[in-house]
Every structure is written in C-alpha cells, then in structure tokens.
Amino acid sequence: MNSHAAALVTFPELRRLVDLRDAGWQFLPAVVDGRVVEVHGVRTWPGGWADAIRVRYVTDVAAIRCDFEGGVSWKRDGGLVEVVDELIALPAPGDRLAPVLVVARAPSPWAF
C-alpha cells in the first residue's frame, strides 16, 4: 500500500481533500524538519477571486474566500469534513447567492 492509500485508510476524512483536488484545487504542503505540518490549498476564480484552505489536522481547518483586493467575504473553521462541505456548497463568485460583503482583510501570506 502506498503512502497516499495508507493516509486515506488512517484518516478517511482526507478523501474530502481529494474531492477538492478533483474540483480544480491546487495544494502545497508546509514542511518543517522533513515533516508535513500543514497543507494549504487554493482555487482561483475569474475576476481575481480565490478560495483558500489551511489544514493542520482533521479537526483544525480554516477556509476563506477573498476578492482581488484581499477582502474576505466568507470564512469558516472547524473540522475537515464540515469546512470542505461548506466550500463545495459555496456558490461561485458572480452567482447571485455568492457572498460579496467584505467582512475582514486576508492575512498575509494566508496565515489564517
């Protein structure tokens, strides 16, 4: 069994990150001393919008949607399954139901 399959067996919640990857998300690990300590993901949209996720553990996840100026119009934190489910349900920017009101400024560089 390869390491990816073993991780999915040990932490089935990680399947939700595979779902995001299949939906066009890109991921980068944060590595310290040769060990992955976080995973960061991003999905960009036309018009400069971006969704981002930071995963520290299956119970420690944060996600945001930012406009092209770094204004945060949506954010959630909690468990991996819940946060990813909300990201998947989030209407695309430009949809009449998509959040547009800026509620915060994006941290730099995405240290949320």
Describe the structure using short key phrases.
about 110 residues; alpha+beta; six-stranded antiparallel sheet; 3 helices; about 25% helix; about 40% strand
Task: Walk me through what this model shows.
The structure is a single chain. The chain contains three helices and six strands. It has helices at residues 3-10, 15-22, 80-89, and strands spanning 26-32, 35-44, 50-57, 60-66, 71-78, 104-105. A hairpin with a 2-residue loop joins β3 (50-57) and β4. The radius of gyration is 14 Å and the shape is globular. The relative contact order is 0.16.
Helices and strands in order, then pairings?
Blueprint lengths: L2 H8 L4 H8 L3 E7 L2 E10 L5 E8 L2 E7 L4 E8 L1 H10 L14 E2 L7
Antiparallel strand pairs: 1-2, 2-3, 3-4, 4-5, 5-6
The fraction of residues in strands falls at: 35-45%
- Give the strand order of the largest sheet, numbering strands 1, 2, ... along the chain: 1-2-3-4-5-6
Termini separation (Å)? Answer: 34 Å
Q: How many individual helices? A: 3
How big is the Rg? Answer: 14 Å
- Kindly report the average pLDDT value: 89
Question: What's the SSE pattern?
Answer: HHEEEEEHE
Largest sheet: 6 strands, antiparallel
Number of strands: 6
How does the helix and strand content classify structurally? alpha+beta
Q: State the shape.
A: globular
**Poorly predicted spans:** none
- Considering DSSP H and I runs of 4 or more, what fraction of the residues is helical? 10-25%
Structural domain count:
1
